[in-house]
Amino acid sequence: MATEVAFDVPSFINSRRTGAMQYAIVILCGLVMFLDGFDTQAISYIAPSIAKEWNLSREFLGPIFSSALTGLMVGYLLVSPLSDRFGHRKLVVISTFSFAVLTFTTIYATNVTELMVLRFVTGIALGSVIPSAIALTTEFSPSRLRATFVLAIYCGFSLGFVAAGAVAAWAIPEYGWRSMLWIGATAPVIVGILALIFLPESMDFLIRTKAQPENVWRVVRRVDRALPERGPSQFATDVAEQRSAVGSLFSSGRAAGTIVIWLVFMLNLAEFYALQSWLPSILGNVGYSLSTVALATSLTTIGGIVAAFAIGPAMDRIGPYGSLATVYLAGVLFVVFFGASIGGPEWLLHATAFCAGFCISGGQKSVIALAAIYYPTPIRSTGVGWALGIGRLGGIGGPLLLGALLAYGLSAQHILYATAVPMLLAGLLVALLGRWYGSRACRNTK
């Protein structure tokens, strides 16, 4: 009797047209990213009101900004690898509902210590869900659209930033800073319910954990309803690494690439979170109105959304390394122009804010797509999670360093000039990465 040929899942995904279920995954995972963006930026608008109500000096704002980012790092490094044991879908659902409960609890914080602890734990919940969302999106995406879809879901993060600014401008003056937390607690409940109903489990996870063939086939048929109801009894997926998932990040010639990717994440996230956390205060101190500050801050994020529609296809068609290096090096110029525009016409401030955001926020999305492409499916969640987690060291340090520069008395222009340096270093590192790995780029997308 002939031996049955195993059903090749990656080849199946690559050979099919993108269907409704795959777009639904992109939308759901984009909503998860939206929660991260909204929560991260909301605290920037909430913090000044908290400082006024609790009579806090400006130095206390830096630790408040960084507490959730510290929690994110813990979630990325310690919790997200649990998806290898329990599944991406379970982690997304449980973590999203946990985030809702913790955000609701934060409404009743009465002092800085309680606020920082709750922000830290909330960050852990968010940090545990994001790598699984990225891994699910990547796994169900055909190789020709992989970077595009990862950048697309990260548009949710940027939209969350924009929404936070728009909602804060309306809700805080009208209902107080706690209203932002009420909204931030309600949204993940809705997203969690949608994920519970519509989000599929990772086929790679089901195969590796030896799930019943009919359970795997049920997910496969959600990709293509034209397939017969009865499926094969054997499935093939990416070969799992023999050592631990974290150890696998440094095996098979990936060690140098892993280290460089971590450094780029640190530089980009330090730049991103420092500006997003302090930009409202920096521009406000110069004398701009709240509406101007909110628009300029939002435009840095809108620039990142627009970037996704350009950088994602460029990474898929031209190559990930050259595309991303170009974005970072262009960002050096735009950040300098942004600093020079302070004190000039508002239209110029807004234009340069958009261009700087195109490169900073767009670069953040793109380096995540690069990591998702770089690591194979069995260790993708761990690879992305650890890159994001190590990168959070930059995200934590960035706001603190920028706060120290403000305390030192540097002008707004000189502070922004200094923030061009991380973009230069990130661009050079990605170019170096391309030189090392460019000949085998996208090896995990085939």
Please outline the helices and strands.
Layout (H helix, E strand, L loop, with lengths): L6 E2 H7 L4 H35 L6 H19 L3 H4 L1 H19 L5 H28 L6 H30 L2 H21 L4 H6 L4 H11 L11 E2 L8 H4 L6 H32 L3 H28 L2 H22 L4 H29 L5 H29 L3 H7 L1 H18 L9
Parallel strand pairs: 1-2
Helix pairs in contact: 2-3, 2-6, 2-7, 2-8, 2-12, 3-6, 3-16, 5-6, 5-8, 6-16, 7-13, 7-15, 12-13, 12-15, 12-16, 12-18, 13-14, 13-15, 14-15, 14-17, 14-18, 15-16
Tell me what the structure shows:
The chain is an all-alpha fold and 446 residues long. It has one domain: Growth Hormone, Chain: A, CATH 1.20.1250.20. Helices cover 78% and strands 1% of the residues. It has helices at 9-15, 20-54, 61-79, 83-86, 88-106, 112-139, 146-175, 178-198, 203-208, 213-223, 245-248, 255-286, 290-317, 320-341, 346-374, 380-408, 412-418, 420-437, and strands spanning 7-8, 235-236. Helix 3 (61-79) packs antiparallel against helix 16. The radius of gyration is 22 Å and the shape is globular.
Annotated CATH architecture: Up-down Bundle
Kindly give the count of domains: 1
What is the CATH H-level superfamily? MFS general substrate transporter like domains
What is CATH's topology name? Growth Hormone, Chain: A
Distance between the termini: 32 Å
Order of helices and strands: EHHHHHHHHHHEHHHHHHHH
In percent, how helical is the residue content? over 70%
Highest-level CATH class: Mainly Alpha
**Which structural class do you get from the secondary structure elements?**
mainly alpha
Shape: globular
For the largest sheet, list the strands in their spatial order. 1-2
Radius of gyration: 22 Å
- pLDDT averaged over residues: 86
Low-confidence stretches: 441-446
Helical segment tally? 18
The fraction of residues assigned to DSSP E strands is: under 5%
Question: How is the biggest beta sheet arranged?
Answer: 2 strands, parallel
Number of strands: 2
